[in-house]
Design brief:
The protein has 6 helices and 3 strands. The protein has helices at residues 2-42, 44-65, 102-108, 110-122, 126-129, 132-153; strands spanning 68-80, 86-97, 165-175. Keywords: Cell membrane, Cell projection, Chemotaxis, Cilium, Flagellar rotation, Flagellum, Membrane, Transmembrane, Transmembrane helix. The chain crosses the membrane at residues 17-40.
């Protein structure tokens, strides 16, 4: 009989321990939830988020203010493929710059810029130009060439920024 009482006591104390653990876990979750609610309602977390949003908006506005665009549209160029067969390419692109007068500069020196584009494109095969890497390389080299042209023609004018071309964006790129 004494053995049966000991077994009953051991079984009931194990159940009690599980119940206590469950209650502690529930209380822990409730405390974390209440703490999170208080942080959100007091604005501590919202203030940081609003500060991040304000910084991002300010950066985007600064980028938009410091960015000017000009376009070169509808150039039709002759290129060859790897087998030496000729193909036609239609190319349009936008020039993104930090120079406010970029549009008038591009218009004034368009023949020099188009000549540089023709030289760069004709030195490549159509297969190379159709790859992502080939397009990226063409963008970089066009940006360098156009910056060189504008730096050269504006060498005497200190009002025009040097190396102001920051990006070339293809708006039309067709090879047929």
């Amino acid at each position: 009989m004494a053995d049966e009482n000991e077994e009953v006591t051991q079984k009931s104390s194990g159940k009690g321990l599980i119940v206590v653990l469950i209650v502690l876990v529930v209380l822990l979750f409730a405390a974390v939830g209440v703490g999170g609610y208080l942080l959100l309602s007091s604005g501590v977390l919202n203030g940081q988020q609003q500060l991040q949003n304000q910084n991002q908006t300010t950066t985007e506005k600064a980028d938009a203010k410091d960015s000017y665009k000009a376009s070169i549209n509808d150039l039709v160029l002759n290129i060859t493929n790897a087998k030496g067969r000729e193909k036609l390419m239609k190319l349009s692109f936008a020039i993104k710059s930090t120079e406010p007068t970029i549009e008038s500069l591009v218009e004034e020196y368009k023949p020099e810029i188009v000549d540089a584009v023709i030289a760069q494109v004709s030195s490549r095969s159509s297969e190379e130009l159709l790859t992502v890497g080939g397009k990226a390389l063409l963008k970089e080299e066009l940006m360098d060439d156009i910056n060189s042209i504008l730096n050269e023609v504006s060498a005497e004018n200190d009002d025009i920024q040097k190396n102001s071309i920051k990006q070339i964006l293809f708006t039309s790129f067709v090879i047929k």
